[in-house]
Amino acid sequence: MVEEEKEVLQKSTSPWGKVFWLFVILVFSGLTVFLSFVWLGKQTIESTTNAAVELVKAFRPAEVVETFEEWRDMEATATEGNILEVATATASEKFTRTTNFEMFGKTLPLGTTVSEITVPATYRYHIDLNHDWFVTTDGTRLLVLAPRIQPSFPVAFDTGGMQKKTNEGWARWDGTENLDELETTITSKLALRAADQEVMENIRDESRIAVAKFVKSWLLSQEAWADDKFEEIVIVFEGEKEANLSNAEPALKLGQEKEAPRP
Predict the structure, then answer these.
(1) Which domain holds residue 180?
(2) Is 50 found in the same domain as 100?
(3) Is residue 74 in a domain?
(4) Contact 205, 243 (CB under 8 A)
(5) Which of the residues 73, 153, 208, 239 could staple to 235 if both were Cys, CB 3.0 to 4.6 A apart?
(6) Are 215 and 142 in contact (CB under 8 A)?
(7) Neighbouring residues of 204: CB distance < 8 A, sequence distance ≥ 6
(8) Looking at the structure, do residues 127 and 186 belong to the same domain, yes or no?
(9) Do 107 and 47 share a structural domain?
(10) At how many degrees (to 10) do helices 15-59 and 61-73 cross?
């Protein structure tokens, strides 16, 4: 009986049996470690993600930087106290740039690139209060020769409302470049447009009303310029062609609290 038990024990402790049980132990241990890491990793990822989300909500770095940059770049400069804005005008301006391919001074038949930009623009006009004024009377008419109207620069335009389009020729690939070149000229083109004589004529009547109201509010507020002394205010600007103070239509009729009819 003792001999049989020894034989069984020896078989159970043979080299192949030891390898088998060692393999089982290693597999079980590895599986246990793997599951532990998976569980811990999941908890760590969830914790890290939640912490990051809460940090972004609390800090909002993009908004802080944007606000800081906005105020840092803002600069305020006092004027000389000599500007009186007399009129504004708005228009949707369209600019076009057309290019062809040339070689040795000749246009080659490779198509034409046409780029267009439409942008809302706001023109402003002013007079310089420090320039010479001439004021006289003609009965109950107050006659004023005011400083010349000047456009205010740069002309403001709304980039948010800007519309762009470009059409390339059949053998052309410069549409984007052509459009970019056109956009760089908008400020200078708007300046030329603001100073155009036809535009100046269009805003002159509105400017007369503004200056007449200024004269009424400022000059006539003095005791020597009582409201009941004058019935009309005539405004003519320096540099106006064929302008005559004596024969000009009134810009404002006093006592009626409204502008005079335009001719």
Answers:
(1) 83-259
(2) no
(3) no
(4) no
(5) 208
(6) yes
(7) 149, 237, 240
(8) yes
(9) no
(10) 30
* Domain tally, the chain: 2
The structure tokens listed for 34 are 């793997």
Domain assignment present for 210? yes
Distance CA 127, CA 152 (A): 9
CA 174/CA 114 separation, integer angstroms: 10
Q: Is the pLDDT of residue 231 over 60?
A: yes
249 and 194 together in one domain: yes
The DSSP secondary-structure symbol of 147 reads: P
The rounded distance, in Å, linking the Cα atoms of 231 and 182 is 51
The predicted structure's pLDDT at residue 111: 64
> Residue 224: its pLDDT value, please?
54
pLDDT in tens, 80-115: 888 999 999 999 999 998 876 555 455 445 567 788
User: 37-48: per-residue pLDDT in tens?
Assistant: 545 555 555 565
Tell me, yes or no, whether 114 and 177 share the same domain.
yes
Residues 121, 31 share a domain: no
The verdict on 38 and 108 lying in the same domain is no
pLDDT per residue as tens digits for the range 200-210? 989 999 999 99
Q: Which of 113, 94, 92 is nearest to 164 (CA)?
A: 94
Section 50-69 average pLDDT: 52
Confidence of residue 171 (pLDDT cuts 50, 70, 90): very low
Same domain membership, residue 103 and residue 49 = no
Domain contains 21: yes
